[in-house]
Each structure stands twice: as C-alpha cells, then as structure tokens.
Amino acid sequence: MCARGRARHFARRKSHSGCFGEDIAKAICWNLSTKDRLEWTSELLEGYHAYLHANSPEDCQVTLDNVRKAYDMFMPVAMVTLLFKVVAMKDKEDIEPIIDRAKGLIQNVYTMTKLLEK
Fold this sequence. Notes:
Layout: H1 3-14, H2 20-31, H3 34-54, H4 64-88, H5 96-117
Helix pairs in contact: 1-2, 2-4, 3-4, 4-5
C-alpha cells in the first residue's frame, strides 16, 4: 500500500471533527517512516486538500497553503503525542519502528524551528 493509502486508512480511525491540521499531521507523522514522510508529505497534503475541497460546501475557502500551514503548525503536536505513545509502548517487542519515527520527527521539528527563528 502506498503512503497515501496508509495515511488515509489511519485518518479514518483516529481523526476527529474540528481540526484538520492536527488530524493530517498525526496521520502523516505517526504512520510514515522519516524517509516516507519526507518523500510523500507534499503529495499527501495536495491529495488531502483536493479531498477536502471536493467534500466541503462551496463557500469553504480552505487553500492548499492553509493545509500546508496547518500541517506545519501541528507537526510539533504530533511529535509530542507520538512520544507519549513511545513511552506507553516501551515494553513492546515491535517498538523500534515507532522509536525511529519519533527520532526522525524530533530532528525535523528541531530543524524546522531553527529555520523559522532566522
């Protein structure tokens, strides 16, 4: 299954109404490896925007830029909540892929924060 399919499957199970930025950030950050996240995020956000646009009232003015900014804003939230999951699952045998995702996410959020400070 491609990255888009995995994120879509997750989004249906864990999303909630009211905050698409948090939902899409968690779907992408929790489910994709660092490599896949870096490779597929733009395409996933574009697909999410197309889906949102097609399934929203005509007066809804959510742009692709809005979706990208919401993702960027909630990426640190997704990181923190993923860290809670790592702690909760620390005794599980299959924890390594989740730890790898968390490490990559920490590095990306740190880099993004440093770039925004300039």
